[in-house]
Here is the input.
Amino acid sequence: METTSTEIPDANTSLAHWATIRPAAVRVFLRHGLDFCCGGKAPLADACRAAGIDVERILAEIETESGRGSGDDERWDLRPVDALVDHIVTRYHETLRADLPALVEAARKVERVHGDKASCPKGLADLLEAFRDETFAHLAKEEQVLFPALRQGLRGPRLGMPITVMRHEHDEHGRRLHELREKTGGYEPPPEACATWRALYEGLARLDAELMEHIHLENNVLFPRVLGGEGR
Here is the structure.
């Protein structure tokens, strides 16, 4: 059973709910590669078992992160819907629009200069370009159709179809991230990587983490609230 905002989550609480009511858990999940966005329905204990991680270690790390506190540890499930939508657009949509074109160009440069090396991520630029186009089309749908409807107060079952489409596209984004991780060896640059190559992988790792947070806020916080008819 899911916990409420006043209860203490435990090993049987889903990853998504942990990330929602204890935002510091997001940093721990990212550190250990635990999927709290598209795969967020899994209980923490099951996800840890599948990944071969001691669940007690994860729980202890979450407590440590929570104790440190962070300006990013906002409880967005407790904020007004309009504030959450604004946060998604300014924090994630605008960042994606700024970062993706530069990452595509960096990947093309790396492939052009280092294409003769076995470690070169050949095909990465094309993969990123396709991802950029898909992502920008997705952002436009949200900003031009779904988000204006939410700001106008639309709630409940009438949102079912557009939100289903958005969730399906989020699943596609998740598959793209998996491809990027495989293509880059988990964003670990080889010893011979130049400064551009290293910066590219650092940027991709940041993109990966931010997109996981972004999808989580929509799939697990925003969409359930508005589908459930929450008015504020």
Q: What stands out?
A: The helical segments are 15-21, 25-32, 44-51, 55-68, 81-114, 124-151, 160-184, 195-227. Residues 104 and 128 are 6 Å apart (CA to CA).
